[in-house]
């Protein structure tokens, strides 16, 4: 079962971007094989009708970045399919690939390394327009850039013509969003877009993402480790742990009533800025060395409700109701 | 990676090595070009003049045994040598660049092939091979020799280029370029190559140096071309005719001086470029042997009473950064008190000066940071008036430090155990090995680690474990106060909660005070008892955590809290408009005024002083004491609106919102907190 | 780890194979007859005018197998190489190349090793002190001096040294390995004489070495002292001197040591130049005179030895470094 069936609004048509049972396995060593499962049998579908903001949340090592690379076609899966508008990306023609390239735009985490220090920041905006043939004259380009900047809350006079190190982190990140916009995307893949930005500046960037979604109908995949921003920004959420999706559903449902023990642990560990809210109660300290289980549920070594079955068989994502699915034997039908 | 684009400027000043190196080389090149023109008619003819003559008026550097004027020969030899070096250098660099690019950019089989090829070449001493080849040639064409030298020495360049290409590939901007639709070739030429220019230049200089060196070595060994005078051939001839033994110093010293100048120029140029490519990390500070020399406190500074009970009292602390453009105020007039066992959080975003604060309190500030004035009283004793020695004794024993995510704070090549032991030994001498081991095992267990960890190296531990080791070191001597500088910012949220839980428990057991510095309001809210808010190097608000959270007095604090996403209900995301403060370029008056919805004239002129209220709250804002709480903030599009221009000129009284209301008042478009 | 060593060793063998094959091939590609050229020199040296060069060349060619097909020569080459048989010296026939090399090597290894070790110890110590900001300011004035010293090729220094000490001041001999009239015995007189002759060449090397080691160590120290763990060590209250030694120098030594190993690998190459200036009877002079007399077998043999020492040194470094750096030695 996939996140397909657990969303706030019922999607229509085929998903714009979908991964079906994708895995990415890295092996190292010639004689002694060392296996790392960066992504393990993950299925996720993103629709653009209606366009929704989907959060993929997990900590480092959960596989969320790998998943985003797989979805964008930057990484080839060791198993499974990646489908763009229903077509397997390995079988796409050159024209189709170019279309996907334009319609699926990334936003990266680090606002500094996303800019080539050799050029002014205009370079990255102008390149977008010229490569996709979206502007036919300098004047048109100027207008389009101006509009995009306004949409993200930047003033051209303050930002254009500067070098990256002359702008603040927040400005650079907003400019990245503007760049993505210029390509007229159908989907924006935002990989931790605000984690390296100050808390007081995050809102503007996240608000622009929301605006893009609502006003321009762009679907967004919001990858993050921060559940609080995920809750505020996204409609649907998928929680990842050790390469698999362990819980998914609408943000309201998953956050208010988490079913998977890991999600519960995650939410309980978030320090909320209110002393009256609890922090980390009822959480068990994880053992200092967790044994690597190759079979069974990956969370078993840390799970306070682990059963015998968890060690031997890996639970699959099962739908609990219209708005939530979890991969845990506690809820197995 | 270089952040500025002009190599001749380093930290805003002229790059000395680069300039000197360039000067020397330009001089040599001038000599090479102008010299021969001037001497054309005085071409060093063999037998032109009496041989073996020491310097005289007419022959400034004497003559050699062939009767040639040494001065002329030297001047003509310089360009010849430079040319050969250039040939070898150009070939070597071009080859190295292409192969390094291919290996780094395309990877895979090409990379492996090139790397193996380069390893083989590096293992073969170039000189040996050149000897092998050139010894077979009669009257070798020295240009061909230079070419072959170039072909044998590209490995160094290739390695450097490859490494840099790999680094650049990690940077997101290549991915952004691809997302923009650039083809691989475009990414290579337009994005990667321009950033390779400084390295290419440095490699070129290196290659030329190597080329000149190798060709000269061959010539000295007798493998050069007799017909062309170069500096190397001059040395060879002078040796051939035993000039040294015959005391003809004027023959062999000029070429040595010339070649020395060439190499020194090249070395300075390359070392100047190196400093541009990888800018120096701020250095280990120069310790002053005596007490810190401070400037007198600025006029009008509030002098606060010394609290005898306090474990830490910071009074009017000023820290500046010395930059080429002048002194930048990183911490301005910060004062606060910490009672024994109290947990205080200092929150600040970028440009707040919080990291400077942390190191300053420990007196670990590194240049260009400098503590200018103030007092830091640890149980009544001023740290700023102590000598290095006294400070050293205090550190860890009374004042402990927990650094940012202990990733780099532990010595990577020393095991964990010895790093804990040396801390103990330095303060409590004369402990036997067994006792020490027991103490180490004990402290590790107390922080939730297995004692076996002591025999591990830092890289074998996870982030959480390393942080626990840092906690262990911090508490092992029962200090009175622990300064924790963003201790968990690199940790996952689950690990963070566990580590902070451990710290919490231990702190209570020890009764130590904690100063927790960070940017995560949630973390500080949960852990600390009191909170101080830093903005642009000043403490703008201070008070008990629950008070400040429920009723923030300073507009910055209010807007900061409002911008924090919570899990209660979905609401509009709000932030603070404008840019974070640039410490080097602060606006006059209150640093926050450009972004403040309640700004009025006074704010633009006068820096607000900290005012204390009876309930233990401090705030630095011109709205007070006329107001008792903040008026409501209106948001449009997620940003607070600035007041209308009409009526803003009057004082605080014109602002909306009555003075008596608003403790936790409901704001428009916002949900009331339960 | 073992896998890495095995891989590296295989690469080492590959390098030796390729390098020696090149040693075999390159001289044979270049036009001209090496035997003829060598014998011509020899004939000229002996002063014989009307010797029958042709017959002589033919005899030698046949004797040394130059008339055989190339592939057969290649096989013979490897067979001989593995037995360390480099053939005969053309100029000093019937002396074997190996005998000449073995006579020369001890001289070179002896004084070069000494020089390198002294330069390394002094240079690294100096560099460490220069990298420590609390060292006396006066030391810092040495830096430009060191820059100049390390910029000038060391063998050119040698010339100046010979002139000053040998010719003008007449304190030390101007060349050679030992007094020609000396009878070598294990006594003080012999050792004294040997040292006397070795001082100047060693000094040239040592001065240069100190310059370059010191500057290298200083750079590494500056980097190491800028690391976070140094700040933390200070925060622990450790004394400056302790931090400098255990945390600073100790960490900076690692890259320095690999540099040392590489130096040893290039020992023969550096020796070539200095010995030719000083007429010191080591490998360097051997090559020098072989170049003059076009004694190709000697040249080939010495080059083979040089390649061998250089690649072995690199192999040792590649295996040694992971062993001394715990970050690589001990995995997760």
Walk me through what this model shows.
The complex is a heterotrimer of chains A (333), B (674) and C (332). With 333 residues, chain A is of the alpha/beta class. In chain A, 32% of the residues lie in helices and 22% in strands. In chain A, helix 3 runs parallel beside helix 6 (169-182) and helix 6 (169-182) packs parallel to helix 7. The two termini of chain A are 13 Å apart. Chain B has an eight-stranded mixed sheet, with helices on both faces. Chain B is elongated. Mean pLDDT of chain B is 81; it is low at 281-285 and 644-674. Chain C is globular and about 85 Å long. The chains are: A alpha/beta (333), B alpha/beta (674), C mainly alpha (332). The interface between B and C is large, with 80 and 86 residues.
Low-pLDDT segments of chain B: 281-285, 644-674
Total strands of chain B: the figure is 16
Q: Helix count of chain C?
A: 15
Shape verdict of chain C: globular
In terms of DSSP E residues, the strand content of chain B is 5-15%
In helices, the fraction of residues of chain B equals 40-55%
How many whole angstroms does the radius of gyration of chain C measure? 25 Å
Number of strands of chain C: 0
Unreliable stretches covering 5 or more consecutive residues of chain C: none
**Most extensive chain-chain interface:** B-C, 80 and 86 residues
- Helicity level of chain C: over 70%
- Give a quick account of the main beta sheet of chain B: strands, pairing sense, barrel closure: 8 strands, mixed
């Amino acid at each position: 079962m996939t996140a397909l069936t657990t969303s706030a609004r019922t999607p229509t048509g085929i998903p714009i971007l979908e991964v079906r049972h994708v895995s990415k396995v890295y092996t190292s060593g010639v004689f002694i094989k060392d296996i790392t499962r960066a992504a393990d049998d993950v299925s996720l579908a993103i629709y653009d009708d209606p366009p929704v903001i989907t959060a993929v949340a997990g900590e480092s090592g959960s596989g969320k970045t790998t998943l985003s690379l797989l979805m964008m076609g930057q990484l080839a899966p060791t198993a499974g399919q990646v489908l763009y508008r229903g077509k397997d990306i390995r079988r796409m023609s050159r024209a189709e690939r170019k279309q996907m390239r334009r319609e699926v735009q990334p936003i990266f985490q680090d606002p500094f390394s996303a800019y080539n220090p050799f050029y002014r920041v205009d370079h990255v905006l102008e390149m977008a327009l010229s490569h996709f043939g979206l502007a036919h004259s300098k004047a048109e380009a100027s207008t389009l850039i101006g509009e995009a900047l306004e949409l993200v809350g930047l003033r051209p006079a303050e930002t254009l013509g500067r070098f990256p190190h002359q702008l603040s982190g927040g400005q650079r990140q907003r400019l990245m969003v503007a760049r993505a916009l210029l390509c007229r995307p159908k989907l924006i893949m935002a990989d931790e877009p605000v984690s390296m930005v100050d808390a007081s500046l995050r809102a503007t960037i996240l608000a622009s993402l929301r605006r893009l979604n609502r006003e321009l109908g762009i679907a967004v995949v919001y990858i993050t480790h921060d559940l609080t921003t995920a809750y505020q920004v996204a409609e649907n959420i998928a929680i990842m742990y050790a390469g698999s999706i362990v819980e998914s559903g609408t943000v309201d449902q998953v956050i208010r009533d988490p079913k998977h023990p890991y999600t519960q642990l995650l939410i309980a560990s978030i320090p909320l800025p209110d002393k009256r809210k609890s922090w980390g109660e009822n959480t068990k300290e994880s053992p200092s060395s967790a044994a690597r289980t190759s079979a069974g549920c990956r969370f078993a070594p840390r799970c306070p409700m682990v059963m015998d079955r968890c060690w031997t068989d890996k639970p699959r994502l099962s739908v609990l109701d219209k708005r939530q699915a979890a991969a845990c034997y506690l809820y197995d039908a | 990676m270089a952040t500025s684009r002009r190599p001749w400027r380093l930290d805003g000043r002229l790059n000395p090595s680069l300039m000197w190196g360039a000067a020397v080389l330009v001089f040599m090149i001038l000599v090479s070009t102008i010299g021969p023109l001037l001497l054309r008619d005085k071409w060093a003819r063999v037998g032109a003049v009496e041989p073996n003559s020491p310097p005289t008026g007419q022959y400034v550097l004497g003559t050699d045994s062939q009767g040639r004027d040494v001065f002329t020969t030297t001047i003509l030899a310089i360009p010849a040598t430079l040319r050969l070096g250039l040939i070898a250098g150009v070939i070597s660099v071009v080859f190295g660049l292409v192969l390094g690019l291919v290996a780094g950019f395309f990877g895979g089989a090409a990379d492996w092939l090139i790397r193996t090829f380069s390893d083989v070449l590096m293992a073969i001493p170039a000189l040996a091979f050149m000897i092998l080849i050139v010894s077979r040639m009669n009257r070798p064409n020295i240009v061909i020799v230079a070419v072959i030298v170039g072909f044998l020495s590209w490995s160094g360049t290739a390695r450097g280029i490859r490494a840099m290409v790999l680094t650049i590939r990690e940077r997101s901007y290549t991915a952004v370029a691809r997302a923009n639709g650039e083809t691989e070739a475009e990414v290579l030429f337009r994005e990667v190559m321009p950033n390779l220019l400084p390295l290419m230049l440095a490699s070129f200089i290196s290659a030329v140096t190597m080329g000149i060196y190798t060709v000269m070595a061959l010539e000295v060994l007798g493998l050069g071309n007799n017909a062309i005078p170069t500096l190397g051939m001059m040395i060879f001839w002078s040796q051939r005719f035993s000039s040294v033994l015959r005391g003809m110093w004027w023959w062999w010293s000029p070429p040595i001086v010339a070649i020395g100048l060439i190499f020194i120029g090249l070395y300075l140029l390359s070392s100047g470029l190196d400093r541009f490519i990888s800018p120096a990390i701020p250095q280990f500070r120069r310790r002053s042997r005596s007490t810190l020399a401070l400037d007198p406190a600025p006029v009008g500074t509030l002098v606060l009473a010394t609290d005898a009970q306090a474990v830490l009292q910071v009074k009017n602390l000023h820290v500046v950064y010395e930059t080429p453009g002048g002194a930048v105020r990183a911490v301005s007039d910060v004062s606060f008190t910490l009672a024994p066992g109290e947990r205080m959080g200092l929150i600040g975003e970028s440009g707040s000066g919080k990291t400077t604060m942390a190191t300053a309190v420990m007196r670990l500030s590194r240049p260009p940071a400098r503590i200018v004035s103030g007092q830091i009283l640890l149980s009544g004793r001023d740290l700023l008036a102590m000598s290095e020695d006294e400070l050293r004794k205090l550190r860890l024993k009374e004042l402990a430090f927990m650094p940012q995510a202990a990733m780099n704070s532990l010595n990577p090549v020393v095991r964990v155990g010895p790093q804990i032991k040396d801390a103990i030994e330095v303060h409590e001498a004369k402990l036997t090995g067994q006792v020490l081991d027991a103490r180490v095992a004990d402290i590790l267990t107390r922080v939730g680690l297995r004692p076996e960890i002591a025999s591990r190296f830092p890289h074998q531990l996870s982030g959480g474990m390393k942080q626990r080791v840092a906690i262990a070191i911090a508490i092992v001597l029962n200090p009175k106060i622990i300064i924790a500088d963003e201790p968990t910012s690199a940790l996952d949220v689950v690990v963070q909660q566990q580590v902070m839980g451990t710290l919490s428990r231990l702190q209570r057991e020890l009764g130590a005070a904690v100063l927790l510095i960070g940017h995560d309001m949630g973390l500080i809210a949960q852990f600390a008892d009191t909170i101080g808010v830093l903005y642009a190097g000043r403490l703008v608000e201070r008070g008990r955590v629950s008070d400040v959270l429920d009723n923030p007095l300073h507009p910055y604090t209010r807007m900061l809290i409002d911008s924090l996403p919570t899990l209660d209900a979905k609401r509009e995301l709000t932030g603070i408009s404008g840019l974070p403060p640039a410490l080097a370029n602060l606006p006059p008056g209150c640093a926050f005024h450009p972004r403040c919805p309640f700004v009025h004239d006074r704010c633009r002129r006068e820096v607000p002083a900290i005012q204390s209220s009876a309930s233990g709250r401090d705030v630095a804002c011109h709205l007070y004491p006329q107001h008792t709480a903040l008026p409501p903030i209106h948001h449009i599009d997620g940003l607070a609106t600035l007041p209308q221009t009409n009526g803003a000129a009057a004082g605080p009284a014109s602002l909306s919102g009555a003075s008596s209301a608003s403790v936790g008042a409901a704001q428009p478009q916002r949900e009331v907190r339960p | 780890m073992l896998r890495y060593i095995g891989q590296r060793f295989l690469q080492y063998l590959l390098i030796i194979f390729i390098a020696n094959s090149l040693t075999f091939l390159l001289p044979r590609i270049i036009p001209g007859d090496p035997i003829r050229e060598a014998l011509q020199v020899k004939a000229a040296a002996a002063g014989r005018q009307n010797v029958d060069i042709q017959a002589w060349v033919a005899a030698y060619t046949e004797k040394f197998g130059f008339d055989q097909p190339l592939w057969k020569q290649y096989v013979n080459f490897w067979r001989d190489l593995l037995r360390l048989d480099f053939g005969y010296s053309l100029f000093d026939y019937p002396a074997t190349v190996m005998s000449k090399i073995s006579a020369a090597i001890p001289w070179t290894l002896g004084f070069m090793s000494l020089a390198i070790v002294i330069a390394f110890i002094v240079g690294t110590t100096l560099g460490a002190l220069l990298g420590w900001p609390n060292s006396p300011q006066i030391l810092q004035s040495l830096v430009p001096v060191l820059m100049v010293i390390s910029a000038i090729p060391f063998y050119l220094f040698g010339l100046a040294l010979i002139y000053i000490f040998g010719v003008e001041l007449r304190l030390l001999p101007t060349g050679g390995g030992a007094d020609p009239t000396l009878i070598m015995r294990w006594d003080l007189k012999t050792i004294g004489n040997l040292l006397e002759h070795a001082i100047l060449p060693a000094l040239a090397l040592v001065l240069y070495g100190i310059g370059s080691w010191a500057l290298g160590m200083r750079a590494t120290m500056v980097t190491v002292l800028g690391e976070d763990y140094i700040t933390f060590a200070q925060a622990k209250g450790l004394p400056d001197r302790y931090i400098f030694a255990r945390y600073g120098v100790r960490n900076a030594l690692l890259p320095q040591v690999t540099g040392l190993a590489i130096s040893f690998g290039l020992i023969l190459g550096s020796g070539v130049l200095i010995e030719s200036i000083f007429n010191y009877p080591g490998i360097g002079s051997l090559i020098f005179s072989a170049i003059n007399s076009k004694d190709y077998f000697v040249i080939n043999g010495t080059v083979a030895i040089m390649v061998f020492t250089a690649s072995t040194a690199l192999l040792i470094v590649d295996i040694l470094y992971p062993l001394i750096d715990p970050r690589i030695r001990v995995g997760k």
